[in-house]
Amino acid sequence: KKDHNRSFFETHLEEIPERLLDILNQYAPEEDGLPDFAVRKSLLRRRFGSRLEGIERIVLAGTGSSYYMGTIAKNFCQTIMPGVDVLMVRPGEIDNPEIFFAPESDLVILLSWSSTTSDMVRLANKLSAMKVVMVAVTEKIYADMALIVAKSGGVISSLSRDEVTVSGVKSTVCVLFSLMLFCLWIAARIGRKESVRGYIQRMHRIPHILALTLEDETLRRFSKEVTDRYAESIANVVISALYSDQVGGEIALKLEENTWAAIGKALDYQVVLESGLKVDTTRVLVLVDATCLPRLTESLAVMKSLKREKIDFFAIGIVDQKQAEIQHLSNGQCIFLADMRNNVLQPIVNLIFYYQLAYLYSQTRGITTGTAPRNLAKSVTAGRSLYDRTTSPAKEIAKLNDINARLPQSLPAGRDPDTTSLWETNSSNGKARHYYEEMREIAALILTETPAKEIFQCFDQNIETLADHLFDDNSDIGEIIFMPMDRPAAAAVRNAAGIWERLLGCPVRIITPVESLAAFGDNVLLFAVASEPTNWNRVLKCIALAACPLFLLGPDTGFTRPSSIDSDRLFLLKNVFTRARSDILYTAIHLIFLNAWQSAAPEKAAVVSKHFGSVPATMLDVLNDPALKKSVSASVTANRRYRTLFYIGPPTGAGQTWISLLDRGGKVLAENHAFGESSHGPLVTIDPRVEEKYVKMDTRDEMIAKFGADNVTTWEQLYLNDRDIDTFFRTPPGNLDGIEKVPFYAGEAWYIPELHPDYDIDNDNLIVLDASSKRHFYQAMDEISTLGCRYPRMILITQAAFLNPKNRKQLYKFPVSSTITLPKIAAGPIPEMHLPFALNIIGEEFSACVKYQTR
Questions:
Q1: In the predicted model, is pLDDT for residue 5 greater than 70?
Q2: Total domains in the fold of the chain
Q3: Contact yes or no for 750/646 (Cβ under 8 A)
């Protein structure tokens, strides 16, 4: 119910302590007892044993806020069950469920408050077909996902009751709390009853602590001070222990959802310490969350760095935990939350504080009770493409063989890696020019007779050891795990991981540099990857306690081998690349696995090797394409007024690379989102008010009076094929489907897809949508449908090979400000293995144009 003097958001927020008491009364009524749930215990016992000892892995899955609640619970779950492997995934990140899941040993917990989110329903259907045991945590126990899961392991109600706010408030906390209790139930079953009782006692105190937090006027005054000062912010940057628990991601999402136009950007401490933070803090709110005690030292280091760079920020800490130092570093701009005396329970208190902050932020920005929300959907029920294109290793090899047959056997005329490219010649930016030069160097290395020996130190011995682990008949390896230590390494790994998972038919996972390795045994092969010599010390510290087979990949510079690591487990790069660090690592990963595979399956490896050997031709085609370079510059020029953007694309590394490049430039604040996530944040940052945003078409005389004859003439040439506006109105076209530069009809008027000169750009956010992947093309189509109905200002990245009439009709169904079109190569579209190089090159050019073009 709603207090008539308050908003639904406030009412729901204040309900949380009472709802948590309901959950405790239902699932763990005794403070010194054990939790119990009405799940299908007999099925769980049949699959995993009487004490659930057969559970080798717990997989949590969710989207939006449910994803962030799952990551918080993952940390909790690993703490209470250190011997069990726990991971959190979004459905869109799972390339092939048949490879990813192990039905005999995986327990999957699906998180969705509504049970109607399309990706979650599709995942539930897929898991049901695979006979994977599932349990769902949801409020809507009779909705689609829950009905599917009820036939498997059972459904747990989150007991939040109805929630009418678009932004999740009590729903998210109730899902998290219920999930934590269920994790304790599992822990008790596997023999950790005493530890579980201790946690139950602490959790019984949480509702009281949350009630006190909500009543604390000091916290409210602090939040009001923050929001009043940054009422006109264009973005909110949250620096937190993101790699540990993802609380920062949920904070950024909530600030974004409740401020509308101010985008949310979450960064881990390590990212800021490595790369710095280039933002104009007069328009960007920076929050440093110092509530993760195991990483408190890193948060203090971030504050010192920001203070040194004179970047204004607010700090949130815990009472009596380095309080004086935080006050000094933040110049008194700080607040301290109640100490839960247990780090894995601390996020629950933090969420309540940040939710209240987000609500006050919305009030300060004028989004009051009665204002219609921008994002009207609480659940994303539309989607059509997830898991429709699953494949097998044999099919992947056959595809590559078919592509190889259409590729030229040698470089085309005029494509010499030793010759300066057109993009270098025409580049006015020294750093971009140096990057293009390094890309030519990589192309030249790939073209050598033995590229691996040119790139690595002591390669042959190392590759034999790796091949034994991966392909020997007696090997127990069932999963490959990459642990990238920095952003360039993470981008390279994300680009390569999915490709090799499909080729080998072996699960490939990516973990953060702070994750526990305790649950990994002899059946896991760990690859730690670093792009910079300065990260070696951190690598060695992270892997010190690893019990699984491991290999290291990174620069030879600055590395001293410790006695605990054998020399045949080191893939050290000879070449030092300063700009193309992610690209050389991506190349290195392919060469490592190709050469290891050569001993086990030479014919298959030969097909893939031939395919990878054709990469230089694609790279040189891109670097010598004048139209492509011009289209990148034109896209930036057409949208130069924007100061924030989202890159939305497949769950690969291209988006990470683009964001890193734009962060380095400091002119545009950007964030990356994978397909399927846009409705959980990015959607709300798009201003749907077409009349204010775009140029409305009137009679030619009226438009000349408003915008000037030169502008009107330019628009007629660009959008009306040289017809004048009055002629357009007399005989409007019957079909504009599939045409990029055309007027569009919205409401009851025609508009030109040009920003109105008087439009306040701070009310909107630029979208860069990557539809360049053949594998993810239909997911891109879904995303365009979701975003397009709000008429975003959108830059589309696609391939010339995709622009047939059918695809054009979908791609240009809604207005697009500009298109960056990758060239068609001899084999058709640029293949998936080649694509990261092309997208990284475009990203470098885009960021250079953003940095040096004036608004």
A1: no
A2: 4
A3: no
Looking at the structure, do residues 687 and 828 belong to the same domain, yes or no? yes
Residues 301, 397: one domain?
no
Examine the pLDDT at 668 and tell me if it is beyond 70.
yes
Q: On the CB side of 474, how many CA atoms lie within 13 Å of its CA?
A: 1
The DSSP code for 266 is E
* Predicted confidence (pLDDT) per residue in 587-613, tens digit: 999 999 999 999 899 999 999 999 999
Per residue in 295-352, pLDDT tens? 999 999 999 999 999 999 999 999 999 999 999 999 999 999 999 988 899 999 999 9
Residue 340 to residue 427: CA distance in whole angstroms: 55
Q: What is the mean pLDDT of the chain?
A: 93
Instruction: For 575-634, give the secondary structure using H, E and C.
Output: CCCCCCHHHHHHHHHHHHHHHHHHHHCHHHHHHHHHHHHCHHHHHHHHHCCHHHHHHHHH
Phi-psi region of 341 (alpha: psi -120 to 50; beta: other; left: phi over 0): left
Distance between CA atoms of residues 405 and 10, nearest Å? 63
659 and 773 housed in the same domain: yes
Same domain, residue pair 651 and 740: yes
H helical segments located in 472-573: 487-504, 536-542
Token readout for 697 is 């078409």
* Angstrom distance (rounded) from CA 493 to CA 525: 15
Average pLDDT over residues 251-272: 94
387 falls within a domain: no
CA dihedral (845, 680, 650, 59) positive or negative: positive
Is residue 673 within 8 Å of 681, Cβ to Cβ?
A: yes
Site of tokens 């948590």: 20
539 vs 734, more confident: 539
Instruction: Report pLDDT digits (tens) over 551-565.
Output: 999 999 888 888 778
Q: What is the pLDDT of residue 377?
A: 57
Report how far apart, in Å, the C-alpha atoms of 228 and of each of 261, 279, 366 are. Answer: 16, 19, 11
> How many contiguous H segments (helices) and E segments (strands) does the chain have?
34, 23
Q: Are residues 31 and 122 part of one domain?
A: yes
Q: For every residue of 82-109, which 3-state class applies, written as one string?
A: CCCEEEEECHHHCCCHHHHCCCCCEEEE
Same domain, 586 and 667: no
pLDDT (tens digit per residue) in 699-725 = 999 999 999 999 999 999 999 988 999
657: in domain: yes
Q: Does 384 score more than 80 pLDDT?
A: no
- Could you tell me the residue range of the domain that residue 128 belongs to? 8-207
d(CA 58, CA 618): 41
Mean pLDDT of the region 98-104:
95
Give the end of a domain, one of 346, 364, 382. Answer: 364
Q: What is the CATH number of the domain that holds 159?
A: 3.40.50.10490
Mean pLDDT over 812-834 rounds to 94
Q: What span, in angstroms and rounded, lies between the C-alpha atoms of 334 and 722?
A: 59
Residue 132: count of CB within 10 angstroms of its CB: 22
The two tokens of residue 794 are 């959108």
Residue 529 · residue 489 · CB < 8 Å: yes
Same domain membership, residue 827 and residue 779? yes
Q: What is the pLDDT of residue 370?
A: 63
Q: How far apart are CA 312 and CA 296, in angstroms?
A: 19
Q: What percent of the chain has pLDDT over 70?
A: 97
Indicate if 279 and 318 belong to the same structural domain.
yes
* Confidence at residue 855, expressed as pLDDT on a 0 to 100 scale: 53
Query: Does 854 have pLDDT greater than 60?
Result: no
> Is the residue at 3 inside a domain?
no
Please check whether residue 372 lies inside any domain of the structure. no
pLDDT at 282 over 50: yes
Pick the last residue of a domain from 617, 638, 667: 617
The secondary element (H helix, E strand) that includes residue 464 is helix 459-471
